[in-house]
Each structure stands twice: as C-alpha cells, then as structure tokens.
C-alpha cells in the first residue's frame, strides 16, 4: 500500500480505537445526597394537620365529597362561603390516614386562608 492510503486508514481507525477496552473510572468518596424532609414538612402547620376523618366530620359535618384512592383520601367540606379540601395519607402501613395537606378557596375559586375557612365551616 502506498503511504497516503495507509495514513488515511490509520486516521479512520482512531475513532474506533477509542471505543475499545477502556474502563469506567470509579468515583471515590461519592455518596448520594441525604433524603430531605417529607413534602408535608413544607406545608403550613395548622389545627387540621394530623386529624383523621372522624375528627374532621365531627368538626365540619358530612363531607360534600369523599374520594378514596390507593394512597390518599380527599374529604371536601363547603358551606357557600368557602370550600375546604383535606388530603389524608396513612403515616405508615396499617395506620389511620391523617391530614397532611389542606387547600381552601372561595366558591368563585380564589385562594383563602385554610384556618379562616375552617372557622367559617365550624360556624355552619
């Protein structure tokens, strides 16, 4: 073979050589970041947090909605002045679901303070 052709073959073979036996260099001292707090830790603490369905129905009466899914139960209470959505999750397998998140809004849909809505619902 002539020299230019041999040089061309060598240049074309270089990218393939890079795919050959190389190893992955292990990272030393790497540890996954620690788990952060649960999402419920970022919510505002309030009097409804930790309440179970029985406590909610004692406070507000029969819920307007009672939606049960695999991991969550949503109870909705309303009285014409506000709508309160409570989301209950079981803290552990076999435990009674408790409130971990609350949303409140006016009948028109604008956000309202959940504590104020709870007070309005208790007044019935």
Q: In brief, what are we looking at here?
A:
Keywords: Signal. This protein has 124 residues and is of the alpha+beta class.
Q: Would you mind describing this structure in some detail?
A:
The chain has about 120 residues and is α+β, with helices and mostly antiparallel strands. Helix content is about 25%, strand content about 20%. It has a four-stranded antiparallel sheet with strand order 1-2-3-4. It starts with a helix and ends with a helix. The mean pLDDT is about 80. Keywords: Signal.
Tell me the layout of helices and strands.
Elements: H1 3-18, H2 53-60, E1 65-68, E2 73-78, E3 83-89, E4 98-105, H3 114-123
Antiparallel strand pairs: 1-2, 2-3, 3-4
CATH domain class name of the domain at 44-123 = Alpha Beta
Rg result: 30 Å
Q: Which parts are unreliable, with pLDDT below 50 for 5 consecutive residues or more?
A: none
The sequence of SSEs as H and E is HHEEEEH
- What topology, given as strand order, has the largest sheet? 1-2-3-4
Assign the structural class, choosing from mainly alpha, mainly beta, alpha/beta, alpha+beta, or little secondary structure: alpha+beta
* Percent helix range: 25-40%
Per DSSP, the total helix count is: 3
Stated plainly, the CATH topology of the domain at 44-123 is called Beta-lactamase Inhibitory Protein, Chain:B, domain 1
Tell me, what's the shape? elongated
**What is the number of E strands?**
4
CA-to-CA gap between the ends?
Answer: 97 Å
Could you give a short account of the major beta sheet?
4 strands, antiparallel
What's the CATH architecture of the domain at 44-123?
A: 2-Layer Sandwich
> What is the arithmetic mean of pLDDT?
80
- How much of the sequence is in beta strands? 15-25%
């Amino acid at each position: 073979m002539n020299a230019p052709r041999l040089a061309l073959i060598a240049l074309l073979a270089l990218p393939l050589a890079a795919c050959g036996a190389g190893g992955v260099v292990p990272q030393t001292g790497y540890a996954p970041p620690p788990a952060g707090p649960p999402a419920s830790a970022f919510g505002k603490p309030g009097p409804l947090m930790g309440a179970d369905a029985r406590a909610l129905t004692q406070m507000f009466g029969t819920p307007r909605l009672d939606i049960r899914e695999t991991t969550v139960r949503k109870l909705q209470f309303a009285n014409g002045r506000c709508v309160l959505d409570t989301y209950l999750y079981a803290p552990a397998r076999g435990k009674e679901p408790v409130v971990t998140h609350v949303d409140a809004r006016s009948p028109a849909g604008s956000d309202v303070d959940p504590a104020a809505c709870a007070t309005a619902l208790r007044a019935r």
